[in-house]
Amino acid sequence: MSTPPSPPAPAVPARPRDQAAGEPATDETPKRTAAVVYNPIKVNLAELKKSVRKHQKKAGWAETLFYETSVDDPGLGMAKAAMEAGADMVIAAGGDGTVRNVAEALRGTQVALGLLPSGTGNLLARNLKLTLDHLDSSIGTAFSGTDRRIDLGLVEIENPDGTRDKRVFVVMAGLGLDAQMLANTNDRLKKRVGWLAYVDAIARSLRDNNALTIKYRLDGGERKSMKTHTIILGNCGLLPGNLLLLPDAAIDDGLFDIVALRPERKIDWIGIWVKIVWENGILRRSRAGRQIMRLAPDLKTVRYMKGSELVVRLDSPQDFELDGDSHGMAVAIRARIDPLALTVRVPA
């Protein structure tokens, strides 16, 4: 697969140079404009508009623009329309899919991404340690916070029919069991019990013989083969339930953290679970715990790698996911990091 060319950044009005991020406008400076791209199923629009009006006035911003997502366009087109209308910031109000689509539109521009976490995942907000499930606090951060640059993942996907798609992800992309779990998730159960629905999906996924053989090349190095159940590329490593899947991942280091889970027997999943929950989530947080980890033998069923580009070819079509959303099947992927390509609003 050839390296996908980077699409040109959309033309975006420059941010007024004499107004700092989060600083109220004066009579002499043009007011900045925000836009909200919202999923109508995920948000209460009346409450959202009430909070936006309060914080835009306090920060001295102009009237905010609102764009509703649809099944046909989950946010990409709306975010582009917001930039064409002159937005200096676009707030993604919805789940991880809304965030990913807005981020794709904002990639490489001066326009900042504001986050209004909603739904069960909230992967980017969790990894940035933003407030979850508090609308007014999140809107306040968008209008009065500061800008932080983070990396983005770019991926070219080869579909089973030979066509190719190019996508962006902000947190993680996964092949194999990880993506199969998402494909097996019962949407009705997810609405009722949230993240616990994935436990049911994992159980159903593990019934299948889901081992796969991949050929991969990291950073243009030697082509290698590996048998695995899933391979995950992460821009950051924290999952819901405080599960630290990729403990060394940093959102702005210009690198992917990669993990391959390679159990040979079903009982090996216990060791994998212990490593992720006990070692990564508990022992790693203290000096004594890290000493215990150094004495423990390496777990061959969990393999970690780092790099800025990964090419993977599969022996058969496999499920593929981006930021917790199922993409469908893939026979090959080429993923590379786009360093500091996205600006996100965080607390000042």
Automatic annotation (TrEMBL):
What superkingdom does the record give? Bacteria
List each copy of the DAGKc domain by range: 29-159
Alphabetically ordered keywords of this record: ATP-binding, Kinase, Lipid biosynthesis, Lipid metabolism, Nucleotide-binding, Phospholipid biosynthesis, Phospholipid metabolism, Transferase
Q: Where is this region: Disordered?
A: 1-31
Q: Where is the composition biased (Pro residues)?
A: 1-13
Q: Looking at the keywords, is Nucleotide-binding present? A: yes
The cofactor named in the record is:
Mg(2+)
GO CC annotation: what is one?
A: plasma membrane
Any single GO molecular-function term of the entry would be:
ATP binding
Q: What Pfam families does the record point to? A: DAGK_cat, YegS_C
Single GO BP term: phospholipid biosynthetic process
The answer to whether UniProt assigns keyword Disulfide bond to this entry is: no
Q: Which family does it belong to?
A: Belongs to the diacylglycerol/lipid kinase family.
UniProt name for this protein: Diacylglycerol kinase family enzyme
- Native species of this protein? Frondihabitans australicus
